[in-house]
């Protein structure tokens, strides 16, 4: 009974804010969001780069920019869902490295590339399932689990291949990974990225499964009471993360033409930075796929423009870090401002009857 009363009271407390938000015109609800701000900032950065950076508008720049952000963009899609559910997966880059090594070893052993790719994808599923099992069944925190599996998967990858690199892959597949859509500077990898982005957007924003993810991020106990299978949902999210990370590992291997145990090391930081910059709350319960895509492209565009302007990688990392800190801090600041406004509105409603009486 007390739980029911608590949920009803919390719903009543949230009602004025929800009514006020949905009482605004539709164009305000679309434009006055963090996602729209990131998209606007991306447009500004592109325009400034086009006006000031030499060769930024060349087709080759566009090609390499999209090739560079492709693995980040792929993994950012399931990472968005995970962070919205108030969890995190730090093992994604290690899964990329492990799948790369699997592809290299099996290809070197003479297996058809198609078979090696399927095995690598299966390994990614197993890696994600291990994370999901430890988090949802054993009950361990995702931060601790994925830090551990980050080291575990990377250790297995390096242990299998050592310090050597495998560079002998079918020419058809390496050419395909670096190919462009005919008549454009856009790499062919953008096609599966668009397909996956649409699939993840539909899953998150237009299905009951996606609404359950938001509910878990806001309050997993309340989500469970409302019928959401919390543990099953989180388990599936980590499996999806492992699967997509393995796919990114296959692309990474073919794009650079080598399989190494240290492939994609540190990539998880760029992925998390892009997701948070794209408007996903680190506290869960908030975020959108289109904002994350804009965040990935913003970091990639900014880095590409600065490199063409001969800015060192250390300075680029500092700028990226500042953007990430600002994106996280802004969430807390906006929440504080909103709570102050609600508090002031509540006081004014109480004072009006008293003065009129």
How far apart, in Å, are the first and last alpha carbons?
37 Å
* Main β sheet profile: none
Give the DSSP E fraction (strand runs of 2 or more residues).
under 5%
- Uncertain residue segments: 1-19
Helix content: over 70%
Q: What overall geometry do the principal axes of the alpha carbons give?
A: globular
- The helix count comes to 15
Order of helices and strands: HHHHHHHHHHHHHHH
Helical/strand content category: mainly alpha
How many strands in all?
Answer: 0
**Integer average pLDDT:** 87
Radius of gyration: 23 Å
Describe the structure.
The chain is mainly alpha-helical. It has helices at residues 2-23, 26-31, 34-52, 59-84, 92-108, 113-136, 142-161, 171-178, 190-205, 208-218, 220-225, 230-256, 267-277, 289-308, 313-356. The protein is globular and about 75 Å long. The two termini are 37 Å apart.
């Amino acid at each position: 009974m007390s739980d029911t009363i608590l949920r009803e009271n919390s719903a009543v407390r949230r009602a004025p804010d929800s009514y006020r938000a949905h009482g605004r015109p539709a164009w305000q609800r679309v434009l006055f969001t963090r996602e729209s701000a990131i998209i606007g900032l991306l447009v500004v950065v592109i325009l400034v780069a086009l006006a000031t950076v030499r060769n930024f508008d060349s087709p080759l720049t566009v090609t390499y920019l999209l090739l560079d952000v492709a693995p980040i963009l792929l993994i950012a899609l399931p990472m968005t869902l995970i962070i919205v559910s108030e969890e995190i997966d730090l093992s994604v880059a290690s899964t990329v490295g492990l799948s790369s090594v699997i592809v290299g070893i099996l290809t070197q052993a003479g297996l058809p590339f198609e078979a090696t790719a399927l095995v690598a994808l299966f390994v990614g599923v197993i890696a994600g399932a291990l994370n999901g099992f430890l988090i949802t069944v054993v009950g361990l925190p995702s931060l601790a689990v994925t830090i551990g599996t980050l080291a575990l998967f990377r250790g297995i990858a390096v242990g299998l291949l050592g310090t050597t690199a495998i560079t002998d892959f079918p020419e058809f597949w390496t050419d395909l990974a670096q190919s462009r859509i005919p008549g454009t500077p856009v790499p062919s990898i953008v096609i599966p990225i668009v397909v996956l982005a649409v699939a993840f957007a539909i899953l998150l924003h237009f299905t009951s499964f996606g609404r359950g993810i938001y509910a878990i991020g806001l309050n997993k106990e309340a989500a469970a009471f409302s019928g959401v299978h919390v543990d099953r949902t989180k388990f599936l999210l980590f499996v999806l993360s492992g699967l997509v990370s393995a796919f990114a590992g296959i692309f990474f291997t073919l794009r650079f033409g080598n399989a190494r145990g240290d492939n994609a090391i540190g990539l998880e930081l760029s992925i998390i930075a892009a997701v948070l910059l794209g408007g996903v709350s680190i506290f869960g319960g908030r975020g959108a796929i289109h904002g994350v895509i804009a965040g990935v492209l913003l970091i990639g565009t900014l880095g590409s423009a600065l490199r063409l302007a001969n800015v060192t990688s250390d300075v680029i990392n500092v700028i990226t870090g500042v953007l990430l800190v600002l994106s996280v801090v802004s969430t807390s600041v906006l929440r504080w401002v909103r709570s102050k406004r609600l508090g002031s509105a509540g006081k004014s409603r109480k004072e009006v009857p008293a003065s009129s009486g």
